């Protein structure tokens, strides 16, 4: 029995083609109808692999949302919070009163040793020439006294009694010694910075005691004015 073959140029019976297409649709109902006019057209998008599909996004208008990082020059840091004074608890239930001699009664170059301090109003005191040094610095008695220098307002001077006794009191001599110790340290720091080439202003050789005044921002704190 000979098998009849069709050459590449042989025509296919249209009736047989339609029957074949009908049988194919019964087996694959989702397949589109293929006609002679659609055999060489663009296939249906649902049957085109994703890698071969044409992009559908329009490039005519950029997107409103951008994932590009923001340059550093456009980033503004939030402002730092302002420094505020935290009120400290009262050292005494009674109002603190500073010795009047510490307000306007002492003649003293605070860069010199405390032995050079003088109190002209007590020069002829019957208790002795230096008795004023041992008077109470503040009343009532408190465990410590906080002082700021008017030219060094960031570092407090905390004055304590020399003795650690519970009933020890702060005297004028304690205040003078603490202030002199701090001024000497500040002078040394400025001198070292100047020697290292920093543009700092050195303390003058004479810085005179002008009196203690209450702090305007902190309770039970005093500021030493200088001349």
Automatic annotation (TrEMBL):
Name of the featured protein: DUF6699 domain-containing protein
Pfam family name, one: DUF6699
Domain DUF6699: 106-184
């Amino acid at each position: 029995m000979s098998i009849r073959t069709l050459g590449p140029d042989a025509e296919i019976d249209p009736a047989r083609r339609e029957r074949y297409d009908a049988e194919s649709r019964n087996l694959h109902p989702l397949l589109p109808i293929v006609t002679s006019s659609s055999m060489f057209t663009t296939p249906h998008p649902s049957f085109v692999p994703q890698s071969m599909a044409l992009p559908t996004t329009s490039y005519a208008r950029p997107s409103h949302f951008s994932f590009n990082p923001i340059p550093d020059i456009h980033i503004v840091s939030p402002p730092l919070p302002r420094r505020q004074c935290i009120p400290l608890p009262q050292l005494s239930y009674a109002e603190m009163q500073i010795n009047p001699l510490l307000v306007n009664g002492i003649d003293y170059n605070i860069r010199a040793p405390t032995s050079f301090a003088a109190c002209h109003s007590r020069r002829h005191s019957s208790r002795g020439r230096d008795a004023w040094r041992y008077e109470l610095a503040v009343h009532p008695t408190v465990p410590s006294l906080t002082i700021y220098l008017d030219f060094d307002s960031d570092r407090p001077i905390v004055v304590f009694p020399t003795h650690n006794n519970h009933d020890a009191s702060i005297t004028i001599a304690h205040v003078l010694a603490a202030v002199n110790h701090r001024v000497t340290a500040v002078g040394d720091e400025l001198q070292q910075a100047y020697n290292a080439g920093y543009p700092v202003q050195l303390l003058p050789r004479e810085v005179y005691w002008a009196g203690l005044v209450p702090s305007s921002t902190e309770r039970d704190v005093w500021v030493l004015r200088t001349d």
